């Protein structure tokens, strides 16, 4: 049967959840207005006061906030509490310009761990499980976030962090890890190294669950991981601005439950800012309902997704984010056409001769954008007959064109050629930016 961490909240009827959200939204709007000079100013510019928010539908009266706001107010200009109330900082790497700093009060850490406690319970983890945390520990939220959530449910944490892969595999065997949390690309690497060491994840370890995220991945990769290693692979979602990793799929593996009592989500048209109905793809916007050091109002996350508010088989009433297509930041534009690395991945992973690792290289030839996809071929798919390889590369190129509407040059390489990563994989090299 299904297990819940907090059955009362997780199965709360939608109407009651809405009432709870409404109350929390109203007090959150007052809170940021009274405590954060940033929000007071932003509300003034938009001509709204907290009293204008009387019901959930009034949310759209409030102005959006953006990642650039966090950068412009670096380090702590968006905080709503004095620094002496902050018990921890996390800092995102930020590919351009200043990083973003997020602070946490004791209650914020509690909310974060609680969110993950619900999520980890929903994928069947609990006391008796050994959860190997292979995300980076430190300024990055992955390691410590999972760590606190896993301890909260009474599981045993094995805080390996990233790297030292052979030792990870040894500890996985010797201490009986039943679950692992890391990036999907790092897990593929672990599986590859294990095979080289003569260790079968399926037969020689107790691993049964993977919690994978921090980089976009596809259902096709999930299928490959599950078939190759015998574990169940779950998607996890969260961003450093929201807290860090917060939500996972439940055992249905059909969408990521977002806890409505903690976060209010909207999906909008990224161009017009108009709210979109359930089932339409748009940009994810979140409002925090229970976060105090740095609450966010209508923060534009930049991920493209679809909301599903239908009841889930698992009995949870909280809405689901359907598999996330990617961040608008990750999108590459090739000759005016939008391409997401996750789309390339879903095409590649359906072709049996293609290995688990790939890289997209974008460049400019004269005035034209060109895209090359470097594809590793599996040991068994590798042929010394040039004609076979040529027909394989043609086939891949044709399938990519069918989905992306963009012509891609396919370069086949030997297994092990593309650099492996211990954290987020480098899937795209855009030479146009250099
Ligand atoms: Zn569910």
| Main sheet attributes: strand count, strand direction, barrel closure | 6 strands, mixed
- Principal-axes geometry comes out as globular
The helix tally amounts to 12
Task: Give the strand line-up of the largest sheet.
Answer: 4-3-5-6-7-8
Bound molecules: zinc ion
Radius of gyration: 22 Å
> How many individual β-strands?
21
Which segments are poorly predicted (pLDDT under 50) over 5 or more consecutive residues? none
Strand content: 15-25%
Q: By helix and strand content, what is the structural category?
A: alpha/beta
**Helicity range:** 25-40%
Oligomer: single chain
Mean pLDDT: 94
What gap, in angstroms, lies between the N and C termini? 54 Å
List the helices and strands and how they pair.
Blueprint: H1 7-10, H2 14-35, H3 37-46, H4 67-72, E1 88-91, E2 101-104, H5 106-122, E3 130-133, H6 141-152, E4 156-158, H7 165-174, E5 179-182, H8 184-196, H9 201-204, E6 209-212, H10 219-229, E7 232-237, E8 247-248, E9 256-257, E10 263-268, E11 282-288, E12 299-305, E13 307-308, E14 320-321, E15 326-327, E16 332-334, E17 337-339, H11 341-348, E18 354-365, E19 368-377, H12 386-404, E20 408-413, E21 428-430
Parallel strand pairs: 3-4, 3-5, 5-6, 6-7, 18-21, 19-20
Antiparallel strand pairs: 1-2, 7-8, 9-14, 10-11, 11-12, 12-15, 13-14, 16-17, 18-19
Bound molecules: zinc ion.
């Amino acid at each position: 049967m299904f297990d819940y961490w907090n059955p009362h909240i997780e199965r709360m009827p939608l109407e009651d959840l809405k009432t709870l959200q409404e109350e929390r939204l109203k007090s959150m709007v007052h809170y940021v207005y009274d405590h954060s000079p940033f929000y007071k100013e932003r509300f003034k510019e938009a001509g709204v006061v907290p009293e204008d928010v009387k019901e959930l539908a009034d949310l759209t009266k409030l102005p959006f906030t953006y990642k650039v706001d966090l950068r412009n107010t670096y380090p702590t200009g968006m905080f709503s509490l004095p620094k002496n109330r902050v018990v921890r900082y996390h800092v995102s790497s930020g590919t351009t310009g200043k990083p973003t700093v997020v602070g946490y009060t004791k209650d914020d850490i509690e909310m974060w761990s609680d969110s993950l406690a619900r999520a980890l319970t929903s994928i069947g983890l609990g006391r008796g499980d050994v959860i190997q945390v292979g995300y980076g520990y430190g300024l990055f939220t992955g390691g410590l976030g999972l760590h606190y959530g896993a301890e909260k449910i009474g599981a045993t944490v094995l805080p390996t962090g990233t790297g030292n892969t052979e030792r990870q595999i040894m500890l996985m065997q010797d201490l009986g890890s039943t679950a692992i949390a890391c990036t999907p690309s790092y897990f593929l690497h672990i599986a590859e190294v294990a095979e080289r060491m003569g260790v079968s994840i399926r037969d020689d370890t107790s691993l049964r669950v993977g919690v994978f995220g921090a980089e976009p991945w596809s259902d096709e990769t999930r299928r490959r991981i599950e078939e190759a290693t015998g574990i169940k692979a779950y998607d996890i979602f969260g961003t450093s601005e929201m807290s860090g990793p917060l939500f996972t799929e439940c055992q249905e593996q059909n969408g990521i439950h977002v806890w409505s009592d903690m976060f209010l989500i909207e999906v909008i048209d990224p161009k017009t800012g108009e709210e979109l109905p359930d089932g339409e793809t748009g940009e994810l916007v979140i409002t925090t309902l229970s976060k105090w050091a740095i609450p966010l109002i209508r923060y534009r996350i930049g991920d493209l997704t679809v909301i599903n508010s239908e009841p889930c088989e698992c009995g949870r009433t909280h809405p689901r984010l359907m598999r996330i297509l990617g961040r608008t930041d990750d999108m590459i534009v090739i000759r005016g056409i939008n391409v997401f690395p996750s789309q390339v991945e879903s095409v590649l992973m359906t072709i049996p001769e293609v290995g688990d690792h790939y890289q997209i290289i974008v460049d400019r030839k004269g005035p034209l954008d060109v895209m090359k996809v470097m594809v590793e071929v599996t040991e068994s798919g590798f042929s010394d007959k040039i004609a076979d390889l040529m027909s394989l590369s043609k086939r891949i190129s044709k399938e990519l064109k069918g989905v992306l509407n963009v012509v891609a040059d396919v370069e086949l390489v030997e297994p092990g050629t593309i650099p492996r990563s211990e954290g987020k994989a480098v899937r795209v090299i855009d030479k146009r930016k250099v």
